[in-house]
Amino acid sequence: MSTIPTTGEKTAATAAKNYLRQFKDWQLISLRVDDSNPRVTDQEQLEHTRAISELKTRQHIVTVVGKVDQASGIILEQRFIKRHRTKTTLAELAANHYQITEGSFYHRQRKALLMAYKLMH
Predict the structure, then answer these.
(1) Vertex 17, ends 11 and 19: CA angle to 5°?
(2) Are 12 and 113 in contact (CB under 8 A)?
(3) What is the pLDDT of residues 28-69, one digit of tens each?
(4) What is this structure's pTM?
């Protein structure tokens, strides 16, 4: 994989990891507003709308990565959207017929994060 031109691979992978991990925060913000509540303020509605947009953007990145490389999509979904541990992610990969050792897992995870980083910019 080519080096990310504007930053080092480690920095790019960290940026993608942090960006995807924000999914849970945006999800909590999105749940603050009940659509059936007529007393929602404009500010609350604005935050809700932005949160939904942020969730969709992150999910879209994971989906696109998964279309290019299904194993990478599974890794991103399991590790950073669902926040599962490595062993759980490896089990999910195995259930989808990807036999990846724990030793090579982190290399695959970095590859997935770099793919996500490219889509972020």
Answers:
(1) 100
(2) yes
(3) 999 888 766 678 788 888 999 999 999 999 999 999 999 999
(4) 0.86
